[in-house]
Amino acid sequence: SGLMEITYKSGARVILEGPCTYKVESSAGGFLAIGKLTANIRTQSSKPKAQSSEPSPLSSLPSPLFAVRTPTAIVTDLGTEFGVEVAKNGDTTSHVFKGSVQVQILPSPASGRRAGGEGGMVQLDTGESVLVKKGEDGPVVVRSGVGDGAARFTRRMPKTGAAKILISQNFDSHPFYDGFTFSTDSSRYSRTIGGAWRLHYLIGDSGASVANEFSYSGGHSVHVERLAGSTPRLSASTERLGAPIGAGRLVSSVRLRRGEYGGLVHGVGQNVEVESGHLAVDVASPAVVIQTDGTIKARRYDAAAKTWDYTDPLKDAGENLVAVPPRVWFGVKMEIDLDSLTYDVWYDAGSGYVLAASKLPTDGAPIDCMGFCIQGEQGGERRSEIWIDDVVLELDESGK
């Protein structure tokens, strides 16, 4: 049991998960007899290179495409990150996290027959899996399709260092202070506040302000309300940190308090231009949805349809429906694995976080923004309101 990482000078990185038997055969791969591995080929070209006679994985000499042999298949990198698992009976499962691989089905020693696509080859693209099973008349290919297989592999080594805090705000410090009022320009679109936060209205005339009547920590929170016909969004950008985040593990957490009537979408995603020069967080992204009746859902990405939809109301670890009453503080947290393209949702009713949904699929789009979009009746008269406090977005890049 346990994990082991091999790094080739060619740029290939292999994580082995025990029990496992893996033999390095050259600077371009090896033989996996049993167990699991994840291969991340960061600098390899997708064009074949001249074969090297140097067998060491540390060789800096040119090498062909990186490949993993198993008893029933050869999995060859076409510019990608992929996982391979070999069962005790020799069955081989291959899954592509990013990019493409070519799976060559090996003939049965007894029959010399092989299965698969033309020439005994199967090509897999992002999110696809294939199982090559041993059979009496030769290998049998079982195409698993999109979305299967990712959860079974380890793509990063265990955390070895502290996470990087990207956003942390309890609204007690500048520019958020008692009496500060968010406002928009005359066209009612977003403006930048304090270099990071923005408030954006789709329509209507609602408000957001720093409040001192309720707080989870410190002395202030942000109060966002939605009146009839309005849709305000509050978002914080990580643009000041450089390029959007496309790898590693993001953890987004927040403390919320519902009014008598109120709901909210908390998501992380990309800045999108909603009007010329005005940005807001993209609504198609990993997100927790607190409905106006207090029940909680989460978004799920359908890779086949290339659309986002919602889960059923979430359950906590005890299989209880997650539903929050008004006028109490609660916590929601998303742990987003940008490598495996999945995320978990956690919920805290006051006694500690419990897992409410596990390994929800995402689309893998880079992330540079987190935001809050208050929910309410379209055209209704009831006032929807939410208090927001202790917002944190952190990145764990260990094991990249």
What does this structure look like?
- By secondary structure, the chain is an all-beta fold.
- The chain has strands at residues 3-7, 12-26, 29-41, 67-69, 73-77, 81-86, 92-98, 100-105, 121-125, 128-133, 140-146, 164-169, 191-193, 197-201, 208-211, 221-226, 232-237, 249-258, 263-269, 271-275, 278-281, 287-290, 296-302, 307-310, 329-337, 342-348, 353-361, 369-375, 384-396.
- The strands form four sheets. Strands 1, 2, 3, 4, 5, 6, 7, 8, 9, 10 and 11 form an eleven-stranded mixed β-sheet that branches. Strands 12, 15, 16, 18, 25, 26, 27 and 29 form an eight-stranded antiparallel β-sheet that branches. An eight-stranded antiparallel β-sheet has the order 13-14-17-28-19-22-23-24, with no helix packed on it.
- The chain is elongated, with a radius of gyration of 25 Å.
- The model is unreliable at 43-63, 114-119 and 174-195 (pLDDT under 50).
